Amino acid sequence: MSKINELFQQELKVINMGLESFYNDLKKQNIEVTHVDWRPPAGGNKKMISLLNKLKG
Amino acid sequence: MVEEKIEAANKKVLEIIMNGQPTLIDVGVAGEVIPGMTSKTILHAGPPVTWEKMCGPMKGAVIGALIYEGLAKNEQEAAELASSGEMVFAPCHHHGAVGPMAGVVSASMPVWIVQNKAYGNKAYCTFNEGLGKVLRYGAYSSEVIERLKWMEKVLASIIKEALSLHGPIDLKSMIAQVLQMGDEGHNRNKAGTSLLIRELASHILQTKFSERDKADVLEFMHGNDHFFLNLTMPACKSTLDPAHGIEFSTIVTTMARNGTEFGIRVSGLGDRWFTGPAGKVQGLFFPGFSEEDANPDIGDSVITETAGIGGFAMAAAPAIVQFVGGSARDAVNSTLKMYEITAAENNTYKIPALDFRGTPTGIDIRKVVETDILPNINTGIAHKDPGVGQVGAGLVKPPMKCFEDALEAFVENLEAKNLV
Predict the structure, then answer these.
(1) Is residue B307 predicted with pLDDT exceeding 70?
(2) Is B387 helix (H, G, I), strand (E, B) or coil?
(3) Do A39 and B372 make contact, defined as CB atoms within 8 angstroms?
(4) How far is CA B391 from CA A16, B86, B163, B366, in A?
(5) The pLDDT of residue A1
(6) In Å, how far is A5's CA from the nearest CA of chain B?
(7) Which candidate, B116, B93, B77, B81, places its Cα nearest to that of B35?
(8) Could you give all domains of chain B from N- to C-terminal order, each with its CATH number?
(9) Among B307, B372, B377, which Cα is nearest to B341's?
(10) pLDDT at B156 > cutoff 70
(11) Residue A22 belongs to what domain range?
């Protein structure tokens, strides 16, 4: 049995990062899940990331 | 290297904010005490706006102020005068003042005078009229004008005399106390109003006015849970003004809305406003009203959040959720989130529910843009039509555009100096 299948035979401990809808779907299925409110810097706005980088250092 | 300059500047700004000693020192007449105020000046909330672009409640408040000043006899005359170019419209913030909702101030209106004893600067704010049909929500019927006249002749005169008997009131320590008593100083001012009455009541009784007038003043203060708001606002304004204009600082020193636009100013970016469309307030509506009746976000009262109270101190005021919606847990989470976008924890304003942690203070535009987290603001909701008044209360956020534009301008400034 591959390692990955072994993993799925155990009780899963899920950490969800980013999209909250994935967290909510698991919660609805009574699966223990911890949500990390992660977002890409500046919401992924490349222009803002570039401006912020200029102020570092 | 540039980061060091920014951090040093922000540290200085935060020191100035923390050192502030806002103190209620007197009551005056706007035309006599507000710098640059003339009989033809009308101050308003938020960033600059022309008569043509003003929203309904702000136009209503201007009409009311012109009738109150005797410059117009009715709505039509007032509207004609307002559009004639004869009146000078300017933001309260350009004159050291702040005003809730429409924030309209005209020359004869009485104002609180708050002085930041640490730096000597003063801030001004009108008296709170209560809820319902009031000028700041754009109402201008005869009952509104009569109340304003009573406030000018009786309320302000009695409080001015009572205050001179009492002596200056330390607003910093009073605001610190009200946060321990369930207020957040923006949308909940029950404790603050009570404390102010406690301070002034015996001195009001000692003034030379009639027993009826003194009783009316105490009843008026007692009947208006937001009476203290018009003191938290100039307290915050007087605290933040000395922190403005510090080169290289990315800390926000003004947030304000005129019902059409939301605007911010940043300490290191001079007097330039960065604006975006005023947002829709999410909240609870009074019976008979709905979202369709609401005007976009309006008022200078967001100066409280700028100084680290109001929506930023929601965790201190769990009862407020009955007024603005949500749960007590939401109130705590709202404050916790604001630590992500602020530079410091307040040294005086503390939150019991967070083990007396200082309120999140000093919004940093870099953090707002980087985290994509916008400031949480508690606010009242004005009806979109003049003359109706408040229709609810809730939560609102500024447009991200204000912070993005400010960040861009900040980098451009540094580029012009060959620092980046």
Answers:
(1) yes
(2) coil
(3) yes
(4) 40, 33, 34, 35
(5) 60
(6) 37
(7) B93
(8) 240-416 (3.90.1700.10)
(9) B372
(10) yes
(11) 3-54
Which residues touch B3 (CB under 8 Å, ≥6 apart)? Answer: A55, A56, A57
Under 8 Å CB pairs connecting chains A and B tally to: 38
Does A42 reach chain B within 8 Å, measured CB to CB? yes
Distance from C-alpha of B414 to C-alpha of B417, rounded to nearest angstrom: 5
pLDDT at residue A8, as a whole number: 79
What does each C-alpha distance from B1 to B242, B270, B344, B417 come to in angstroms? 26, 22, 21, 13
The CA distance from A18 to A14, in Å, is: 13
Which residues of B lie closer than 8 Å to A, measured between beta carbons? 1-3, 6, 250, 366, 369-372, 404, 407-408, 410-411, 414, 420
pLDDT in the model for residue B201: 98
Q: Which residues of chain A does B369 touch, with a Cβ-Cβ cutoff of 8 Å?
A: 42, 48, 51-52
CB contact under 8 A, B371 and A39: yes
Confidence band of B325 (pLDDT split at 50, 70, 90): confident
ipTM: 0.91
What is the percentage of chain B residues whose pLDDT exceeds 70?
100
Domain count, chain A: 1
Question: Do A42 and B414 make contact, defined as CB atoms within 8 angstroms?
Answer: no
Give the per-residue SS3 of B310-366.
HHHHHHHCHHHHHHHCCCHHHHHHHHHHHHHHEEEEEEEEEEHHHCCEEEEEEEEHH
Mean pLDDT, residues B106-111: 98
pLDDT tops 90 at residue B103: yes
| Tens digit of each residue's pLDDT (9 = 90 or more) over A1-56 | 678 888 778 888 899 998 889 999 999 999 899 999 888 999 999 999 999 999 99
pLDDT tens, position by position, B292-303: 999 999 999 999
Tens digits of per-residue pLDDT, B16-58? 999 999 999 999 999 999 999 999 999 999 999 999 999 999 9
Supply φ then ψ for residue B190, to 5 degrees. -65, -50
CB contact under 8 A, A41 and B370: yes
CA distance B50 to B85: 10
A46 touches chain B (CB under 8 A): no
Whole-angstrom distance, CA of residue B347 vs CA of residue B343: 12
Chain B contact present for A12, CB below 8 A: no
Give me the DSSP letters along A1-57: --HHHHHHHSPP-EEEES-HHHHHHHHHTT--EEEE----GGGG-HHHHHHHHHT--
Could B372 and A43 be called an inter-chain contact, meaning their C-beta atoms sit closer than 8 Å? yes
Measured distance CA(B306)–CA(B378) in Å, rounded: 12
